Amino acid sequence: YTVHAGVNLSAGNFIFSPNIFVINQRDYKLVQIGIRVKYKMFTYGIDLGPNYLIPEVGFQNRFFKLSYCYNYIINEGARSENTHEIHFNWFFKYKNRKQLSLRMI
């Protein structure tokens, strides 16, 4: 099973989005926690998993979000390497309603 949960919390011009991501598939198990902060058009975030730390910085408007992440391995025994990621999310309009915030993972 895979479970992903989060919430958007507004505080002035800031939107805080804590989240949790859980995967349990046979012998593979993962729990990742993170938080995103949006201030005006800028987004910042950090995720923490068992062997890695992922900082993120990005730009978001009402049409799309463009962000950069660096997957930093903190456990030298892990069988993977540090990676760079670029994310692009396009936001589709839903039933002509004004959209204050949209969470894309």
Task: Provide structural commentary.
It is a single chain. This protein is mainly beta and 105 residues long. It contains no helices and eight strands. Strands 1, 2, 3, 4, 5, 6, 7 and 8 form an eight-stranded antiparallel beta sheet that branches. Strand 2 and strand 3 form a beta hairpin.
Briefly say what this structure is.
The protein is built from no helices and 8 strands. With 105 residues, it is an all-beta fold.
List the helices and strands and how they pair.
Blueprint: E1 2-6, E2 9-11, E3 14-25, E4 28-39, E5 42-48, E6 52-60, E7 64-73, E8 83-90
Antiparallel strand pairs: 1-3, 2-3, 3-4, 4-5, 5-6, 6-7, 7-8
Keywords:
105 residues, mainly beta
Shape: globular
Q: How many helical elements?
A: 0
How far is the N terminus from the C terminus? 17 Å
Q: Which sheet architecture does the biggest sheet show? A: 8 strands, antiparallel
- Average pLDDT, to the nearest integer? 88
List the helices and strands in order: EEEEEEEE
Report strand %: over 45%
User: How many extended strands?
Assistant: 8
Radius of gyration, whole Å? 15 Å
Structural class of the secondary structure composition?
mainly beta
Low-confidence spans: none
Give the assembly state of these chains: single chain
Helix content: under 10%
